[in-house]
Amino acid sequence: MMPDLPYDQIQGFVLRGYSHPRARHFMICAPTAAAGKKFVAAVSPLITTAKPWDVKPAQCYNIGFTADGLSALGINVAGAGLVAEFVQGAVARGTEFVNPDYDLGDHGSSAPPHWILGLGSGRVHIIVSVFALDVRARDEGTKVIDSLMTDAGVQSLGFQDSDDTLGDSRVHFGYHDSLSQPNIDGSPRPVQDDQPIVSTGEFVLGYNAENSVFRAGPAFDPANGTYSAFRILQQDVDAFYEYLALAASEYDLPQEVIQAKLCGRWADGTPLVLSPDTPDPDVSRNNFDYSKDKPARSCPIASHIRRSQRRNEDSQQHRLLRRAAPYGPAYVPKDGVERGLTGHFICSSLQQQYEFIVSQWVNGSGVTGLARDPLIGAIDATTPPDFVLYWKGEKKHLEGFGRFTTTRGGAYCYLPSIKGLQTLSA
Question: Are residues 381 and 267 in the same domain?
Fold first, then answer.
């Protein structure tokens, strides 16, 4: 039964993808509780809710708070009913769980001391995200946020942009992206996902999640808020394409086949389990599972999509909303420009959704030996890849590639309801 959700109380990007191609994420420090509350009170009327609109706005605004940020505003985070992993924060979680059984990947060059924009320092208290239709609208939104920060006396630590301008919702590794987003029970605008509808409580607090598990919000905001893992993920595009060319020669395989096998989809999004030999624009991008490919002859068991979304009954409890887009210009080899993906990964349980997917499916060693997710996995000298694929009846072991995706910053955020924002600014 579809719940009657108060759309005007839930931040808009929780229940709907805006499809605005430009975004800017501001990292903000509140030096005093008074300054932080003044800023929250000023920015709250701008926050976009899930209430349907007649005309798409030029900008959409959303806001999240770290545990340090809530503390800066005077919230006793230890006793407020917030989940433990949020209270600990992304830095502590990534540092504490560096082991084969619970590896979040934030080590080596991805460790918090290397993070940008103050994200590894505990000084990021508030993240305001502005989604815009174009560069001009983003610049206008920037002027608004800059003015509010100055008036309130909070400090800007900088911002991170994203620009979904590569065409066909592509990422820098060349794949068509954003093909599988959960359909949430009660969402105002269903997405094109043929998987079963996911219970509201998996993404909004104060409602039942899968298996009728009630997920409560914190004491100061008992319903309609949620959590997110904000991430800045650098993609080593040069290394990726260099490896494709090298592997194509070494293993006598077409380069586009290796690219498809690493992902589990052809570059245009065609699932390998539905069309293993060639891309097919006529097959569904989402109406499939792996039940007919248990030997993994079509889609490798360690491929990105097979690791990050299992597409079975149990996987409904481990899904994420991705409000992320590429950053950096279209790829030009060896130009020295940084490229990657940045944004929010939204869920009501950071541990059961975000951390489970990253630690158990992406980096977990129990499912496929040493073959971690080849696109986003934490692959290094201690976890050398042995990626098994089949092509034309022949088994191949791909080796010799390293880590293609590096963490440049991260934060665990609480995304309050509109009433929660009013409480925080009071």
Answer: yes
